[in-house]
From TrEMBL:
Keywords: Coiled coil, Endosome, RNA-binding. The keyword Coiled coil applies. GO terms for molecular function: mRNA binding; protein-macromolecule adaptor activity. This is Protein phosphatase 1 regulatory subunit 21. Residues 11-112 form the Protein phosphatase 1 regulatory subunit 21 N-terminal domain. SMART domains: KLRAQ. InterPro entries: PPP1R21, PPP1R21_C, PPP1R21_N, PPP1R21_six_helix.
Amino acid sequence: MASAELQGKYQKLAQEYSKLRAQNQVLKKGVVDEQANSAALKEQLKMKDQSLRKLQQEMDSLTFRNLQLAKRVELLQDELALSEPRGKKNKKSGESSSQLSQEQKSVFDEDLQKKIEENERLHIQFFEADEQHKHVEAELRSRLATLEMEAAQHQAVVDGLTRKYMETIEKLQNDKAKLEVKSQTLEKDAKECRLRTEECQLQLKNLHEDLSSRLEESLSIINEKVPFNDTKYSQYNALNVPVHNRRHQLKMRDIAGQALAFVQDLVKGLLNFHTYTEQRIQIFPVDSAIDTISPLNQKFSQYLHENASYVRPLEEGMLHLFESITEDTVTVLETTVKLKTFSEHLTSYICFLRKILPYQLKSLEEECEASLCTSALRARNLELSQDMKKMTAVFEKLQTYIGLLALPSTEPDGLLRTNYSSVLTNVGAALHGFHDVMKDISKHYSQKATIEHELPTATQKLITTNDCILSSVVALTNGAGKIASFFSNNVDYFVASLSYGPKTASGFISPLSAECMLQYKKKAAAYMKALRKPLLESVPYEEALANRRVLLSSTESREGLAQQVQQSLEKISKLEQEKEHWMLEAQLAKIKLEKENQRTADKLKSTSSGQAVGVAQEGVAVVTAAGQEDASAKAVPVPVHSTSLIGILTRTSDSKAPDVESREDLIRNHYMARIVELTSQLQLADSKSVHFYAECRALSKRLALAEKSKEALAEEMKVASQNNSRLQDELTTTKRSYEDQLSMMSDHLCSMNETLSKQREEIDTLKMSSKGNSKKNKSR
């Protein structure tokens, strides 16, 4: 085989070498011909130079002759000018001489005219010959330059070819040496391969026996132990819970979150666009504040006012779809039930667009029919009407494909799995078409706005409304571009994630089976969570006894403290009662003192006026010194109307005075009863406060212990979840590694079988050839 390959390579190289030699000869002939042509052109150039020199000499001689003739003409003209005055004096005498001079003059004039014409003709011929010579010389020079360039290129090609031939010869020699070495190594490898094939045959027999024994054992176990194979039929296999792929769910939730943000931007732009369009209809072409607008625009404005009820549900439907994708679910088209609601909201919005489209077109036609509408503005309005039709068509196309994607979650046979990828690519194409349409609308509307701003009737309100509409259209264009690029970047992941489901079946065959699978998944997760619930740690017996002793001691100390508090409260109550008693005694003493002072003052008044005044002053000084802490207004008896007990007792009159002792007893009894009542209320409040304080303290301790236990449980929960995710990842990786090893072993066995079959064929051919040789030898 190696020799045949070498011969084939040598034949190809020989053919290439012969072709290159033939090309080299042709190029050499071309170079020689070009050199001969260049030599001939050089000779022609020399001849042309000689003829040019002769013509220049002739030109010089002619110019010299012309100069002579010009001088001669000047002399003749001078002579003629001198002869004219003389002829006037003697006309009669010189008539004959004048006739002769006129004849001579006419002869000279004719001769001069001929010379001038000949000189002009010679000038023209010389100029034409000079121009022709210059043109021929330029052509020859350019041709010579091109020929020299071509000769240099041909020489470079020849040098390159010779260099290439030498390199190819060296390369072929090196390849020959390498191939000889390679042939020797291949022969050694062939011998080693024969030995390996023999060993592989032995290993294959052993593996075949081992696998057959394992197969029999597994078949017997399956027949004995497995009563029902749920993976045999796709309807039953669709109910099995697939392997949970947390990364897939997190990525799908992230993608859904990005799509929700884009849809929110799109909804905001659509709301602004419809709202500002409604404001524009109220302003242009007729301002509703000045005159009534047309019934068509009134109806159009009424429909546009309802845009929020059709646009807002798009955001809500996308939000519900995002909330339905969680970490615990399985996200495929059969399980995304909320996609149907989003499709229905999109259908209602498209119905709204279809409803307002004819009114929008008629409104643009009404603007075109206005008197101030120019041809450029009319053209922009026509372009905008076409863009609005395209926008509605693009939304209808997008809704068709989204409705198809929502079919698997409601109707099992609505869309085949083989068509998922094509539908997704069409959704991406529709989004790009929507972006293109919005770019056209933005372009045409900006041109329309600039034209309308130049109109003489353009108001500031119209300019601001147009700017708002243009900003909303730009926002819609940016949002459409973002969502189109986002979908095109993730369409491959969407197509790949559609196969996420039961492995041995074609997937979830119906929405009912998908719903049942999700219920089974929740039940399995709850069961696993219940199994993983840790047991409560029990307290050792010795520790429990020690805690009981501490608890008893703490309760005893608590009871002792409570008794001490009760005793201290009783003492405080007694002291309060004594305090109130002595306060009342002090007040009664003050009252007695005041009365005694009044009595002495009255007696002194009756005896003598002067002495009474002195005694009264002394009594007043004594009263003020004794009652600085109390209000001295009670000293003067003033009739007071009071309903309290003290007011009744202290009421005075000019006619009667109550008994002092009985009044003091009543006051004392009243205040003592009041003091007892207040002390009992104070003790009750203190006891309640102590009880509440103890309860609050115990509750705070229990709350602190509960918080600590909660934190410990949260940390344990985090550790358990991390261990769970790690074990799940390890399980998936081990499964994949086992599957890869099995696939590699199967591929290795297939390759070994192929090599063995090839070797058997070679052995058979060798046997046939040996039999043929033996027959030939026998015949000989």
